[in-house]
Amino acid sequence: DAKTTQPPSMDCAEGRAANLPCNHSTISGNEYVYWYRQIHSQGPQYIIHGLKNNETNEMASLIITEDRKSSTLILPHATLRDTAVYYCIVRVSSNTGKLIFGQGTTLQVKP
Amino acid sequence: EAGVTQFPSHSVIEKGQTVTLRCDPISGHDNLYWYRRVMGKEIKFLLHFVKESKQDESGMPNNRFLAERTGGTYSTLKVQPAELEDSGVYFCASSQERPPRFFGPGTRLTVL
C-alpha cells in the first residue's frame, strides 16, 4: 500500500470548512484513498473513500486530484465534535482488512 | 441497530495473568477485525476473520495472543500470559466489506 503524508496538526474555526490535505504521490492505479478519524479515545470511525472521482456523503467530501497524487478531505461546516485525529490511508480495496494507520492529522476545531 | 460491542471496557491485570477480550460484531457482518494501539504508538492491525476462518493474522505479535471466532459470530482475543508491553487499547471492527467500516469502543487493557 502506498505511503501517505499528512500535516501533524491543523486548526479550524467552528462553522467554517475544514480542509485536510493528504499526499500520496506513489499511489497505484488500483489503490483507493480512505479517510478515518478517531475522536479522543473512541474507536476509529470510517468517513469516506474514493478511487479517482470526487466523493461526497453526509459526513464529508473527498477531492482527489486528477493525477491522484494528493487528496483533500473537506468537512463543510466543522463543529467542536469534529475535533479528532484524521487518518488518510491508501490501499487496494480487495485486500484484507489490514489498514495501516499513520500519525494522522490532529484537527482542533475552535469556537 | 446495535453497533460493534466490546467487553470489558477496561481490564487491569497483573503481569503473567490471562485476559480474554470479547467482541460482538454487527449482526450479519462476516468480516471481523482486531486492532490495537499500545502506549503512544499508532493503531496496528492484528488479524482479520471471515466468518470463522482467519483470513489474515499477520499482525498478531506473538504466540501469547490467540483469537477465535467460533460459529462465525462473536470473537475472543486471549492474551496468555500478559506482559507489560501488551497494555493499550484493543479495538474490534466489523463490516460486510473490506476494509473495516465499523469499530467498537475498544477495551483498555492495563498490565501491571
At a glance:
The complex is a heterodimer of chains A (111) and B (112). By secondary structure, chain A is mostly beta strands. Chain A contains no helices and nine strands.
Describe the protein's architecture and organization.
Chain A has 111 residues and is mostly beta strands. Chain A is 0% helix and 47% strand. Chain A has a five-stranded mixed sheet with strand order 1-9-8-3-4, with no helix packed on it. The N and C termini of chain B lie far apart (37 Å). Chain B is built from no helices and eleven strands. At the A-B interface, loops of A face strand 4, strand 5, strand 9 and strand 10 of B.
Using a beta-carbon cutoff below 8 angstroms, give the protein chain pair with the largest interface and the number of residues from each chain: A-B, 21 and 27 residues
Work out the strand percent of chain B: over 45%
Main sheet of chain B? 7 strands, mixed
**Helix-residue proportion of chain B:** under 10%
SSE topology sketch:
The complex is a heterodimer of chains A (111) and B (112).
Chain A: E1 9-13, E2 18-23, E3 31-38, E4 45-50, E5 55-56, E6 61-64, E7 70-75, E8 84-92, E9 105-110
Parallel strand pairs in A: 1-9
Antiparallel strand pairs in A: 2-7, 3-4, 3-8, 5-6, 6-7, 8-9
Chain B: E1 5-7, E2 10-13, E3 19-24, E4 31-38, E5 43-50, E6 53-56, E7 65-68, E8 75-79, E9 88-95, E10 102-103, E11 107-111
Parallel strand pairs in B: 2-11
Antiparallel strand pairs in B: 1-3, 3-8, 4-5, 4-9, 5-6, 7-8, 9-10, 9-11
What are the main properties of this structure?
heterodimer; A: 111 residues; mainly beta; 5-stranded mixed beta sheet; 4-stranded antiparallel beta sheet; 0% helix; B: 112 residues
